[in-house]
Amino acid sequence: MRMLKLALLGDAAACAGSGLLLALGAGWLAAPLNLPEPLLRGAGLFLIPWAGLVALLGLAAAPRRGAVLAIIALNTLWVLESLGLAIGAFGLAPSPLGQAFVLAQAAVAAAFTLLQVLALPARQVPA
Predict the structure, then answer these.
(1) Are the CB atoms for 75 and 116 separated by under 8 Å?
(2) Handedness of CA 27, 32, 33, 34 (dihedral sign)
(3) CB 15 within 8 A of CB 116
(4) Burial of 126 (C-beta count, 10 Å sphere; 0-12/13-18/19+)
(5) pLDDT in tens, 89-114
(6) Which of 14, 21, 27, 80 has the lowest tally of Cβ within 10 angstroms?
(7) CA dist 28 → 3, 15, 34, 100 (Å)
């Protein structure tokens, strides 16, 4: 359980940091990343409350399995959409710096998601 809680809290911290960077720095980041400012700001504004939700789950005495599975599913979707964004699948063409930025945050999200999957206790099945 300890590893799961740490994976959730690490995920929350990374989301909060990214969210603040994107929400507050979207105007400065848009040009060098070649990504639209509203997309960056919107992602940041999504990540801030998301970080709070993930942190609450990580601080729970025993995180609920269904909630953790939902976090894992949404993190996986985030990673897949980030990969699509990095390769221009949504009609956007991030700069090389933009691709590196998107891929780096996707890698962090994927790493925390993998840790959450590995740490999720197996469902107890009566013998």
Answers:
(1) yes
(2) positive
(3) no
(4) exposed
(5) 999 999 999 999 999 999 999 999 99
(6) 27
(7) 36, 19, 11, 16
Q: What are the C-alpha distances in Å from 81 to residues 18, 39, 52, 77?
A: 16, 13, 21, 6
Question: Cα 40 to chain center, whole Å?
Answer: 14
Classify residue 96 by burial, with Cβ atoms within 10 Å: 0-12, 13-18, 19+. Answer: exposed
**Could you report the per-residue pLDDT of 16-63, keeping only the tens digit for each?**
999 999 999 999 999 999 999 999 999 999 999 999 999 999 999 999
